[in-house]
Sequence to fold (60 residues):
Amino acid sequence: MVVGYGKKLRVKTREVNKKAKKSYKCPSCSRTKVKRTANGVWACKKCGTKYASGAFEFKS
Ligand SMILES: [Zn+2]
Fold:
């Protein structure tokens, strides 16, 4: 029996969404303007630099 599996999955999804929607600090211009544009692709809204990083979390 798989009790509680669905609940755990929902919590994890919520965490991931929170990280994916967050703005991250740009290593290039130091502004917190890096947003996810696609899976694994992040772009700085300030200086336009694009980064390949985690699918749901920006790691500089
Ligand atoms: Zn930038």
